[in-house]
From TrEMBL:
This is IS200/IS605 family transposase. PANTHER family: TRANSPOSASE FOR INSERTION SEQUENCE ELEMENT IS200. SMART domains: Y1_Tnp (SM01321). Residues 5-119 form the Transposase IS200-like domain. It holds the Pfam family Y1_Tnp.
Amino acid sequence: MPGTYSQIYIQVIFAVKGRENLLRKPWRDEVFKYMSGIIDSKNQKAIIVNGVADHVHLFVGLKPAMCLSDLVRDVKNNASKYINEQHWLPGKFAWQEGYGAFSYAHSQLDAVYQYVLNQEEHHRTRTFQEEYRTFLKKFAVDYNETFLFDWME
């Protein structure tokens, strides 16, 4: 077969360092648009980028030539730099080390899109930690609670 064809859909979740509520509403959407632009500039598809004050969800269509860890590193590094250059915060902004990545079928696109779109609503009833543990259990990901967050509740 002469070409490579794929449909790889990944939801990536990562938190603000210390899970602090630093992604403030007045400029949060601007950061999410910036992150979408980074994904697009890497020739990947930013389906939706959204989140709340302490964490972000990226839902991407990933081409097989792109290493997911490279994409996440670039998004986090460039977004941190962008936030810091805007001087929206008195101190230095940074992301927590690591991330969660979860794959989906094409038939799940709309459900995942709606889930990411409605982050504020989801987090009225559950914390980021509860949400993240739910993802890890749902996708049967082994984890060590000691290393799950860089600041525990």
